Amino acid sequence: MTRWQRPYSLDLETAGALLGVLLTAGVGAFLVVGGLYGVVPAPVAVFGAAWLALGLVVGVRQAMLGVYVSDVGVRSRAMFRTTTVPWESVAEIRSGTGSMAGLDMGRLAIVIDRVDGEPVQTPLQRGHFRLFSLNPELGRLATWPEHYDEILTTLRAHHRAARPAGPPLRPPFPTAETGPAGAPALSADQRRDLHALARQHQRGALTDAEYAAAVARLRDAG
Question: Averaged over 191-212, what is the pLDDT?
Fold first, then answer.
């Protein structure tokens, strides 16, 4: 059985999510017991328990956010999606632009580049905050800059250890995050269009030549 683990220490947001899960479970147990023994009115107990159950699910998922590694690959666990990439399919693990629903969040995020050119943005982001001014965000982990850099270094070390000897792999085409090699940074609209082209190429709707020509037109239009 493959064992997946986070190769880094937990940050404050993850620890807070775990504490929230425990508190939510305790309050939910109180409502259930109170409803059974008449201490809490049954409608209140049912309504409260339903909301707490939802909060418990969200809290558990938030506590599990992060990047996991094993002998077979690397796994990004986000709020609504878990993506597993075998080590042989990982081109690079880097720091890229953090986005949500196509919007630039103004932060760096750890990105897993796949050899097919499709990037996987992880929920780990480089936060900019001071002590006692934390701003937890659902679905993302904005960790300390030093911790972020440490995590990135550790993940790259795991990738190097798992990668077979030979030249480093690179995506065959520019990605929606990086743009064409040597070109200026792409705008949000260009990144979206480039991502759509990459998906079409991956599905086989575009040949290599058609994809390269479309990317060149997009670059020239910028």
Answer: 69
